[in-house]
Amino acid sequence: MTLQTTMDKENYIAGLIAGDGHLESQRPRIVIASSNQCYVAYITKLLNDLNLRFSVFYDASATVWKVACYSKDFHTKLIECYDIPSGNKSCTMRAPRVQSTQIMNFLSGLYDAEGWPEIDRKKYLRIRIKMKNRDVSAFIFRSLQERGFRTTMHDKGDGSFVVNVGKRESVKRFLDEFTLLHPKWISVHDFL
């Protein structure tokens, strides 16, 4: 799948921000962080497609690339339409408000931010995502289950929650149906 419409791209970026971004509370600035410079190029292309003003810089203290986007309208939309809070969202964010037709692209952005592929027992591929926010984790779990994916969710005991997509057919379907742009997913298809 690809991100074809403006709404697809917007939902993907909103999911990405829910994971690896934040909204500043003092000004309409949105910051997205990534350690992968190639992935930052994808992000900037999407922001360009959305006609959003941005700058890219390397934060040496955090050892990540950051994309700073300046848009009062988009900042407000992320808060009002997606329920992404400004400031520290780890504990304050509730389950995002995303329409059922928008969930796949929103989750794609979230998985590119916080998810990863994992080989279990050296032979089983699974897809995982870990977050500190229980409401958001439960939203991911429910959204996947409603779409027929074989998932589990558990409390790690360290204040974080893991949602796991297991079973070969669910993992294959996940990789086929989601628009995953981060390079970490490239080698996964070889394993199937």
What can you see in these coordinates?
With 192 residues, the chain is α+β, with helices and mostly antiparallel strands. The protein folds into two domains: 6-89, Homing endonucleases (Endonuclease I-creI, Roll), CATH 3.10.28.10; 108-191, Roll (Endonuclease I-creI), CATH 3.10.28. It is built from eight helices and eight strands, in the order αββαββαααββαββαα. It has helices spanning 6-20, 37-49, 72-80, 89-92, 103-114, 134-146, 168-177, 188-191, and strands at 21-23, 29-34, 53-59, 64-70, 115-120, 124-131, 151-155, 161-165. A four-stranded antiparallel sheet has the order 1-2-4-3. It has a four-stranded antiparallel sheet with strand order 5-6-8-7. A hairpin with a 4-residue loop joins strand 3 (53-59) and strand 4. The mean pLDDT is 91.
Structural topology:
Blueprint: H1 6-20, E1 21-23, E2 29-34, H2 37-49, E3 53-59, E4 64-70, H3 72-80, H4 89-92, H5 103-114, E5 115-120, E6 124-131, H6 134-146, E7 151-155, E8 161-165, H7 168-177, H8 188-191
Antiparallel strand pairs: 1-2, 2-4, 3-4, 5-6, 6-8, 7-8
Helix pairs in contact: 1-2, 1-5
